[in-house]
Specification:
- Helices cover about 30% and strands about 30% of the residues.
- The protein is of the alpha+beta class.
- Strands 1-7-6 form a three-stranded antiparallel beta sheet.
- Strand 3 and strand 4 form a beta hairpin.
- The two termini are about 30 Å apart.
Length: about 110
Amino acid sequence: GGTPARTLTMLKLLRSSLKTGGRILVAALDVSVTDNPVHRAYHDTRCAAREPIGKITMRLEYGDEIGKWFDWYHPLPHELEKLAGASGLRMSEMMETGAGTYSAVLEPRTG
């Protein structure tokens, strides 16, 4: 989802489609892991606006083709954990996979 709200909707949909014992594997980018001053300035702007630093607007280009702008959301690990909880899931594992990327396993909450 391109926003936290749409990500929550997506997680709820995925949660409802899991079979018994099913889990969701998430591979994500932790945008806070950067030394790039341009990225840091963007993060400061997002924080000042009380918006997640991982919420961006982008478009794809290939050759002479340029797509439309669309929202994209890279939840930070703690944001993903919060969204998972709100969707009836829990983050059972989280692994930093290097260079600002991480993977997480989400599974239905019990009880």
